[in-house]
Amino acid sequence: MQNPIQRPRVVITGIGLTAPNGNTLSEFRQALLDGKSGIQEYEIRYFGKTLAGICNFDPLKYQKKKDVRRGTRAGSIGVYCAHEAIQDSALDWENVDKSRVGVYVGITEHGNVETENEVYNISQFNYDCSIWTHHHNPRTVANNPAGEINLNMGITGPHITLGAACAAGNCGLAHGCQMLWLDECDVAICGGVSESIHTFGIFAGFNSQGALAKSDNPATACRPFDKDRTGIVVSEGGCLFTVERLDDALARGAKIYAEIVGFASNTDATDFVLPNAERQAQCVEMAIRRAGIEKNQIDIVSAHATGTSSGDAVECEGLRSVFENCPNVRFNGAKGHIGHCMGAAAALELAGNIPSFTDGLIHPAINVDNLDPDCDIFGQLVLNKPERRDSVNYILNNSFGMLGINSSVIVKKWQGE
Amino acid sequence: MTPAEIREAVLNILEDITPDEDLTQLKDDVPFREQLELDSMDFLDIVMELRKRYRIQIPEDEYKNLITMDSTVKYLTPKMEEL
Q: Which string of b and e fits A198-207 if b means at least 16 CB within 10 Å?
C-alpha cells in the first residue's frame, strides 16, 4: 500500500464463515459458482410470512448449550466463524499469545433481537418489568458479538465491534489491518456478523420503506441488476478473517489467501438512506489510489448491489464513472444467492471471490433475466453463469450502508515475494 | 403443590438453565454450586424463572435459602403449597 508512513504488509491467512448457502469457504464458493440460493420462506413474530437467508451451522461445534442460551445469535455466529478462521490459518493456537490477538467484528445493528424478545416477554406478564431478564445488558452491549468470541476462545487481547451499517464487514477487516499496523496485536480476527433475521423490526422497516423483496419463489426473490428487482432479502451470516503481518505469516510458512493492498471509507453526507454515486465513486478511487494500481488492473469488482430499485442503479452509475475504458474489469455480486447478510455481507462477498485467485473463475450475479439498462456496466457484468479468466490478480470489494457510509477493500493475489 | 412437585418444578428450571448437565445424579443435600456449573447469573435465572412461572417473589436477602435442593424446597413450600 502506498502511504506516507511505512506500514507493514498485511495478509489474509484464514477464513471462517457461515452463509445461507454454505458453512465453509469451499461450500460457499461452490454454491456461488453453481448459482445455488440460500433463501427460504420464513416467518417472524408480528411481521408474519416473508423470506430470509438462514444459516444452518452447528453452534454446538464450539459452544456449550448453556453458552448458546446465555449469549446471542450474533455471538454464536461470531464464535463459529472465529474458530473456523483460526483453524483454517493453521496457527499453533495453543501456543499463540492470546493477549496479542485482537477481535474486530463489523455489525449493522445489535441489540434489537434481544430487546424485541424482552418486550414481547413482559407483554405476556402485563408489562411487569421485574420479568425483564438480567441477561439483557450483556446480550445487548454493542461489543457483545466480539466479546463472546474472546470469552469463548480465551482471547485476552482487545475486542470491539464496529457499527458500520451494511459496510461493516469491510470496516471490520480494515480495522484489523490498522490494528496490525499499529502493533496493537499480532493476529487480527476480523470481518462481520449479522443476526438481523431474528428481529421483526428490520423486515418491517424495509417493508415500510418499500425496499423489501416480494416473490413467490425464494430462490429468485433477490435479483440485483434485474429490471424486475423488488428489493432486499434479509439474511443472517458471518465471515471472519485471520489477518497477520506478512513477515509473521511468512516466518511460520502460512498459506496466504491474499494481501490486503488498499481500503477506503467515506461518507455521502447527503441522505439517511439514499446512496450517492459520486461519493461511492470517490471511495472506490481512493482505495485504488492507495493500492497503487491502475483501475484496469482490477479483475473483479464485487458490487454491493442489494436488489433495490434505486440502490443498484446509483451504484452502477458510480461504477461506470470510475471504470470507463477498463475492459479487463468484471463486475459481480452475491446477494442474488444469499440475500443481504447485513454486517456480514461485505466480508462474505469478499471471501466468496477470493478463490478466483486459484480457480480462475468469476462467480456470477444470478437471477438477472432482464438486465436493467441503468445497471449495465459496459457489458462487463458477469451474469447467471461463471466466467473463466486466465488469471485473477486483484479484487475490489464494495459495501455501502445507511447514513451514507461507503467502503472499498482491494486484495491482491499472493504470488510470493 | 406438594414438596415433591416443588422439587420437580425446581428441577425443570435447572434443566433449562444448565442444559449441558446430567441432573439425574443431583444430590439434594449438597449445594447446587458444588455439583453444577452455576454462576451468579445462572443463580439469578432460578429466581427469575420462579417469578415468571409461579409468580414467586424472592427478596434478595432470602436468596441464601436456595443453596441446596433440600433447602430450596423447604423454603418454597409455604410459598407454593397453595398453587
A: bbbbbbbebb
Q: What secondary structure does DSSP assign to chain B, as a single string?
A: --HHHHHHHHHHHHHHH-TTS-GGG--TTS-HHHHS---HHHHHHHHHHHHHHH-----GGGGGGGSSHHHHHHHHHHHHTT-
Same-domain check for residues A350 and A309: yes
Task: Look up the domain containing B66 and give its range.
Answer: 3-80
Which residue, of A251, A285, A308, is where some domain finishes? A251
Q: ∠ CA(A355), CA(A358), CA(A361), 5° rounding?
A: 70
Domain span holding position A237: 11-251
Chain B, 7-66: which have a CB under 8 Å from a chain A CB?
16-20, 37, 41-42, 44-45, 48, 51-52, 57
Rg over alpha carbons for chain A, rounded to the nearest Å, is 20
CB A82 within 8 A of CB A16: yes
- Are residues A370 and A247 part of one domain? no
pLDDT in tens, A337-389: 999 999 999 999 999 999 999 999 999 999 999 999 999 999 999 999 999 99
Q: Do both A223 and A269 map to the same domain?
A: no
User: Around Cβ A416, how many Cβ atoms within 10 Å?
Assistant: 5
Instruction: Please state, in angstroms and as integers, the Cα–Cα distance from residue A290 to each residue in A22, A28, A215, A295, following that order.
Output: 33, 30, 41, 12
Each residue of B14-30: b (16+ CB within 10 Å) or e?
Answer: beebbeebeeeebeeee
End-to-end CA distance of chain B, in Å?
6
Q: Are A406 and A267 in contact (CB under 8 A)?
A: yes
Contact of A131 with chain B, judged by CB distance below 8 Å, is answered with yes
A100 contacts chain B (CB < 8 A): no
Contact residues on chain B for A65, CB-CB shorter than 8 A: 19-20
Classify residue A129 as exposed, middle or buried by CB count within 10 Å of its CB (0-12, 13-18, 19+).
exposed
Question: Residue range A32-40: average pLDDT?
Answer: 98
Q: What is the pLDDT of residues A172-207, one digit of tens each?
A: 999 999 999 999 999 999 999 999 999 999 999 999
Question: Which chain B residues touch A130 with a CB distance below 8 Å?
Answer: 51, 57
- Look at residue A378 in the predicted model and tell me its pLDDT: 98
Q: Are A123 and A158 in contact (CB under 8 A)?
A: no
For the entire predicted model, the pTM comes to 0.97
